[in-house]
Amino acid sequence: PFDAVVTVCDQAAEACPVFPGARRRLHWSFPDPSKATGSEAEQLAVYRQVRDDIARHIKHELLSG
After folding, report:
1. Strand, coil or helix: what is 60?
2. pLDDT digit string (tens) for 24-33?
3. What is the rounded distance in angstroms from the CA atom of residue 20 to the CA atom of residue 61?
4. Helix (H, G, I), strand (E, B) or coil at 24
């Protein structure tokens, strides 16, 4: 059994399979970092931003409750 199922992109939320017994199903929409443009450093910054945003959501919405 799952305590929570989290999808992080709009396409995944639509295509996500059913997880019977999951206590919560959450959808957090983040930009797809694989679509980032610019220099390597600029693209890396987008990946890091999304990573940090996901970590914040986990900390505040899953671990603090």
Report:
1. helix
2. 888 888 989 9
3. 21
4. strand
